[in-house]
Amino acid sequence: MVLKVQHRKHTQQFSVSRCFSVMFLLGQVLLRLLQGKTYHRKILEHMVTAGPASLSPVLLVGGFAGMIFTIQTARELVKYGALHTVGGAFALAFCRELGPILSASIIAGQVGSAFAAEIGAMRVTDQIDALHMLRTDPIDYLVLPRVIACCLMTPLLTIFGLVTGIMGGIFVASQFYQISPDAFLESVRSFLQPSDLWIVLLKGFIFGAIVAVNGCSWGLTTRGGAKEVGESATTAVVTTWVAIFMMDFFLSLVLFEKPTL
């Protein structure tokens, strides 16, 4: 019993310390940005990893998620004779919430885990200590380019995923429910506002920062050997997913919730 209590206390302390380490790393990144310390070539390299290398899974998941969501939505709206609002329901739920979360989750699984594994491997093989010996700050050289690359590419991938999801919704609506593409798109336009596009881009930007900072944080704090590197990569993905959902809740509450009189 005593061992279990001690283990729980250790886990809680570890979680709190992890939260502080991620926030501290984020503060260092913001400070470096204000100072203008960037390695442009490294940013371009990581933009390829965070962008084109992740495009295929984002498009596939976005397309099939759009089709699945349209099937489930149309099936219920048929019962109430409101089939013409399928596109609007799709716009409100998929474009505002589901699409950005799915895209960010895929990037977390592919890019965030890669960041944690790469930096973790450098940590356990003393390559980061070698950077210090060469008077190169690991934050400037390893973390900042990855954060900038993710913040730039995640909003773009989110838009591509939304476009694919809308195309999937149009396909299902026309093939199974005889809703013309024009009617579907008109319903989408009637429910979405121009400001929603900027909100989606903002979410992609914030989610990209969460993916990069959390993955790099786990990599920098890796200790041990190859086993610990794998554990850091796995845990980075899980904690990033949790952080993304929590952040999406607060963003939706602030950006979409209207005060009631």
Structural class: mainly alpha
Span from first to last CA? 52 Å
Number of strands: 0
Give the % helix: over 70%
Biggest sheet architecture: none
Overall 3D geometry?
Answer: elongated
Q: Give the percentage of residues in beta strands.
A: under 5%
Please work out how many helical segments DSSP would assign: 9
Poorly predicted sequence stretches spanning 5 or more consecutive residues = 1-14
Indicate the mean pLDDT: 84
Compute the gyration radius: what is it? 21 Å
- The SSE order reads HHHHHHHHH
Question: What can you tell me about this protein's structure?
Answer:
The protein is mainly α and 261 residues long. It has one domain. The chain is built from 9 helices and no strands. The protein has helices spanning 2-35, 40-50, 52-79, 86-124, 127-133, 138-176, 181-191, 194-220, 226-255. The longest helix is centred in the middle third of the chain and has 39 residues, at 86-124. The protein is elongated. 38% of the residues are buried. It is found in: Membrane.
